[in-house]
Amino acid sequence: MSAYHLHDGFIAPARRHPALWRFVLGLALAFFVYVSLNQIFFQTVLGLAGNSPQFLSDVRTGATPAGMYVLLFSFVFMAAGVGVSARLLQNRSFQTLLGPLPLLRRDFRLVSLAVLAVLAVVIVLPPWDMGGAFVQNLPFARWLVILLPSLVFVLIQVSAEEIVFRGYVQQQLAVRFRSPLIWMVLPSVLFALGHYLPDLAGENALMIAVWAGVFGMLMADLTARAGSLGPAIAVHLLNNVSAMMIVSLPDELAGLALFLTPFGMEDTAALRQWLPVDFAMMFVLWLAARVAIRR
Fold first, then answer.
1. Whole-angstrom Cα distance, residue 59 to residue 69?
2. pLDDT confidence of 131, banded at 50, 70, 90?
3. Distance CA 231, CA 224 (A)
4. Cis peptide before 127 (omega within 30 of 0)
5. Do residues 295 and 230 lie in contact, with contact meaning Cβ atoms separated by under 8 Å?
6. Coil vs helix vs strand at 111
7. In whole angstroms, what separates CA 24 from the centre of its chain?
8. What is the C-alpha to C-alpha distance for residues 235 and 124, in angstroms, rounded to an integer?
């Protein structure tokens, strides 16, 4: 039996209208919906905030919890965009982008437990710093108070990305092309391009984009093995919780973090030393997820 036999069921709803022109038009429509709703949302929020320059800066950089919440919630419109495209151009429901819900819930739970176990081991084992002492960002009491809503907003963000790249894009490509070299790699390339930020990451921008592309392919593999987005959402969620809510880089998206790293994006040498560790950790989490969903 193929390791990807459940993938056939996952992509089945996309077979109704598999034409490539519908897919390309669907991407364009999804982008239009996302940008339009995003503009309306941000203008409304900024208007309610009195067009405060400080609040605008907080939202752009994710420097405060409120700024992070606004930024993370805006990913809803990314998922809404592909939902509209799936309905209008492929005549299928938003739920079909996720896979069977009972399967999604079960595998999300199993993979979450497996990844949490790995992260617990990593926390216990040395080293306990990153070349210097962590910097306290939020007081522990405040961090604890906002823990639950923060988890919800990070879940919104990662779910939206998985729905777009491992849901809509992967499904529509897979019904036209049998080779994983297309339906696994192409969405991951698009995912990597979205993480290519040379103005922020400098010399490390390409390596960070490559990391995102490899991460995308591993999530595509989990989705194909599981037949739902459950495992990919679980791994992506706990990866982003670790990076956004536990220890974050101080430059951007640090508003929810308990601690900050002793270096920022501008310290390309220090960041480059830790990128191989990030790559290794990514593969360990992927392997843990594969074991958790082994049929």
1. 8
2. low
3. 10
4. yes
5. no
6. helix
7. 22
8. 20
Least confident of 87-96, 194-203, 227-236: 194-203
CA dist list (Å): 108 to 151, 209, 226, 233, 262 = 15, 26, 10, 7, 33
DSSP state of 52: -
Is the predicted pLDDT of residue 267 greater than 80, yes or no? no
3-state secondary structure of 128: coil
Q: How many CB atoms lie within 10 A of CB 191?
A: 24
* CB-facing half-sphere around the CA of 11: CA atoms within 13 A: 24
Chain centroid to CA 18: 26
Give the separation between CA 295 and CA 280, rounded to whole angstroms. Answer: 25
- Pair 191, 213: CB distance under 8 Å: yes
Partnered with residue 259 across adjacent β-strands are: 136, 247
Q: What percent of the chain has pLDDT over 70?
A: 98
CA angle 215/218/220 to nearest 5° reads 110
Judge whether 221 and 207 are in contact, CB under 8 Å: no
- The side-by-side arrangement of strands in the sheet containing 135-136 is 135-136, 259-260, 247-248
d(CA 194, CA 165): 11
* Residue 74's pLDDT band (cuts 50, 70, 90): very high
- Please give the structure tokens belonging to residue 136: 């306290």
Q: How many CB atoms lie within 10 A of CB 34?
A: 22
Give the per-residue pLDDT at 125: 78
What are the structure tokens assigned to 52, written together? 């405060």
